[in-house]
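All the exercises in this workshop are built on plain-text protein records. The record below serves as our worked example for the rest of this section.
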Amino acid sequence: MKVTPDWHRRALLAGGAFAVFGWVKGVPYLASLGEPDFAFEDLPGLAPFRRLIGTGSATTGAAIFAGLDVAIGAEPEVNPLAGVVRANPCSAIYGTAQTRGVPIAMFSDFSCPVCKVMDDRLLEVQARDPNGIRIVRHQLPILGVASATASRAVLAAEQQGTYREMHARLIRSPAVTNEAYIAAIAESLGLDRNKLLTDMRSDKIARQLQITAAIAEVFGFFGTPAFAIGRTVFMGSMSTRSLEKLVSEEIDNPCAKL
């Protein structure tokens, strides 16, 4: 059964304008950031998670957002996937496999310029301490058809064990407008292009995107990039140094104990 979420259609109409506004307004703010003094607030009903707040932090009040759509998905009482997320938010965000290192979940859109910046910063943090963090990437395509196509492509590539390779190509590529472009990339990576295109249209990948949309709804991630680092969630941009500081505060990750 193929499902087209309402949040995606709404985002097509509003995302572009907000992207330009957020980027222009946010750049001066980013340039002024020093290392923040972290402050947090609890998220009722979503233990053990908390939201990052305070001066210098990347929050809903001060962050750059590359696309906004406040009414993501259906209301929790209507959307059964939102109930699944609330029942076990740790596994919804990070999966069920617990490994060493602080888990970091990034919610991104391939058309989001700030997402590219933050992806580089995450890789920089990981390069400095390869065993210190575990990155989980969620596709939240809120900026149009090209974003949705790229998201489906990278999830389909994961079925052939080449998520990172496809992700690296698409995050540096111009807007993806059709599946022919994706097929050409697949061939260059040595993938089965027919399988990849079939997987892109599958119910399985549609379901993955619906689950990510439900997580965004529950946690209030109405823009990209958005993050969960251990038990801390926030939206927007953060310096590499601040990322490392936050990771150091999340070494004792409570999600691993649930």
